[in-house]
Every structure is written in structure tokens, then in C-alpha cells.
């Protein structure tokens, strides 16, 4: 690495921004968001200050309802950072939070027994 290039610059990634800079130094969220919480965007008002780039990206990703886990994955951000940014968006009224995604019901035990018996018969 060139000695004249500052240490906060990475040759492959470009300028590095620490995650706490994205969240304004906050490390914890309110706890309203777990992995399966469904988040949806509320239309942006025509006025007001523009969103920071990371919040704008999350807002765009929420155009259709998404889980927090999907948002973190698609945005390429750590889950803790996504939770803090979502807290900010929720406080600003720019997202809505729906119920958690419910896991599928457990299969019928009689059906499972029949499948096991059929596999053993092979």
C-alpha cells in the first residue's frame, strides 16, 4: 500500500466507513426487530431532508414486505446495523412493521409414520 494513502483507505474496497458511523455511534436497537419481523416501506414525503444512503437503500428494499433477515442479507450489512437503521426509519414513520412470519405448521405425525414405513419397505 502506498505510504501517502491514509490508513482508512483500502485499495480494493475504497474508503472505509466504520459501521458506527452509519448508525450515529449507536450499537443497540430498541428490540422491536427480530429476524422474522416483516417490514414494509411507507411512501417518502415530498419534503424533508434526504435519507442517508444506507437508510435509503433499506427503504427501497422494503418496497415489498420483507423480513429483517432478508433486508440484512440483501443490503450486505450486519444485522445489528440494520436493526438500528430500521429503528430510525420506524421513528420517522417511513416504514411499517407487520407481524412476524409464522413458521409452517408441523406435519401430521401419521403422514410422517407412513413415509418412514414406505422408505423402510424399499
Automatic annotation (TrEMBL):
Pfam families: DUF742 (PF05331). InterPro entries: DUF742. It comes from the Bacteria. This is DUF742 domain-containing protein. It comes from Streptomyces mesophilus.
